[in-house]
Design goal:
alpha/beta; 17 strands; single chain
């Protein structure tokens, strides 16, 4: 790995999603531990390898040409026999010496449930957690649509997997629909599939996520971000179990169990016309409140032990945490919930000496002054709150440097970034930059 990449590598373990860093030569610079766990590939076997099997279809190459962040749903090109698909988010990253890299996080959308498959680990012993887990088990025993409600980082995807693993659909696939990336142009093709030649670039027929989830569970993550114009199409498919591929004439059928999750107040969104009332009632038959971490502080020692055990790489010894460091963690409010706890411990493990985490190794995410808390953003219905992660911070710092350089002149900033002013405006809104 180049010396200049070490700063970026230090950020890898602060992400709970699989994260890969790619150089301008389209070769892999680094991957994090979550990548190794998700794809079963050791990082030393990936570093230095080409990022894509076929460079002519390489999504990463375009970012280095345009510096334009991207998000989308892609098929696994490394295994032609695999039906695995994933959502990807790519961002430009600048190292301390201004070297440009690409950072990309992945979320696997289809998870097979083989016989003997263990249910996702649900960690906790508090009274609040016990009530929550009982509620999830009750949801799994029904066939009613489940709506998981809770703040960002509380583990709603884990809860959805738990419902799936304890339901009648446990032998089927668990398929994730990331509603934050299903814009107008992606919705029908990704959800319902398309036929060959349906549009430019459709070189072959493709199954949609509905078909992939047949006899399994279809999990709509952040359902509140689904475009209003596409909501009637989803409602029809859920009501009838039937749909057509884009460019097709034959009616397709799929028998799926539906679980949805959101950190938004959908009832308030219905009142202001940002979410269809009929779809809301269709999806919220069995609501489940996912408790924030601050309401289950008794579970913190168990969660900390669990995450530290995941970080262990040596068979003989593991990470330990001092009493003062543990007290510091317990006293913190955890606005980012369990995801923030995990990221905090990953960073502490990278900073500590001799695998002993001290109080000084614990660093909490600094939030920008004046930024509304999550609860206030829910009430206002802001469409796309900024995720707090290192990749977004790098992009924000890069744009901020250009704002200072050109004294806020958007035309000059866009020209240096080689993007349109409209694209720059979207970036400024997404990153909360003035």
């Amino acid at each position: 790995m180049p010396q200049s990449a070490f700063t970026l590598e230090s950020l890898l373990e602060t992400h709970d999603l699989p994260l890969i860093i790619i150089g301008a030569d389209l070769r892999i610079v680094a991957v994090n531990r979550a990548w190794e766990h998700s794809f079963g590939v050791m990082r030393q076997n990936l570093v230095g390898q080409p990022c894509c099997v076929e460079n002519r279809n390489c999504r990463h190459q375009r970012l280095f040409q345009t510096l334009e962040a991207y998000a989308g749903i892609f098929a696994d090109s490394s295994d032609a026999s695999s039906l695995r698909s994933f959502s990807a988010r790519g961002f430009p990253l600048l190292d301390a010496d201004a070297t440009l890299y690409l950072g990309e996080t992945l979320t696997v959308l289809k998870k097979s449930a083989a016989k003997g498959h263990e249910a996702p680990a649900m960690i906790g012993k508090s009274a609040v957690f016990a009530q929550y887990k009982t509620r999830l088990q009750q949801a799994a025993d029904t066939q009613a649509p489940v709506l998981l409600l809770g703040e960002t980082g509380t583990g709603k995807e884990l809860a959805a997997e738990f419902v799936h693993s304890h339901s009648r659909q446990a032998d089927g696939d668990f398929v994730i629909v990331d509603c934050t990336i299903l814009g107008e142009e992606l919705f029908e093709s990704e959800l319902f599939g398309h036929e060959k030649g349906a549009f430019t670039g459709a070189t072959s027929a493709k199954k949609g996520l509905f078909e992939l989830a047949n006899n399994g569970t279809l999990f709509f993550d952040e359902i509140g971000d689904l475009p209003l114009s596409q909501q009637p199409k989803l409602l029809r498919a859920l009501e009838s179990g039937q749909f057509r591929r884009v460019g097709g004439t034959a009616m397709q059928k799929a028998n799926v169990r539906v679980v949805c999750a959101t950190h938004r107040n959908l009832a308030d969104m219905v009142k202001v016309g940002r979410f269809r009332e009929d779809l809301f009632y269709r999806l919220s038959v069995f609501p489940v409140e996912v408790p924030p971490l601050r309401q289950r502080r008794q579970d913190l020692p168990l969660l900390i032990d669990h995450f530290l055990a995941q970080l262990n790489t040596d068979a003989d010894s593991g990470y330990a945490i001092t009493q003062s460091a543990l007290i510091k963690l317990i006293q913190y409010a955890w606005p980012g919930n369990i995801r923030e706890l995990r990221n905090c411990l990953q960073l502490a493990a990278g900073l500590c000496k001799d695998k002993s985490i001290q109080e000084a190794d614990i660093h909490f995410m600094q939030r920008q002054a004046g930024v509304e808390p999550a609860a206030a953003r829910e009430a206002s219905g802001d469409a796309h709150p900024l995720p707090i992660n290192s990749m977004a911070q790098f992009e924000a710092e890069f744009i901020n440097s250009l704002i200072s350089k050109y004294q806020g002149n958007r035309k000059l900033i866009a020209a240096e970034m080689n993007i349109s002013e409209r694209t720059l405006y979207r970036k400024l809104n997404r990153l909360n930059l003035n």
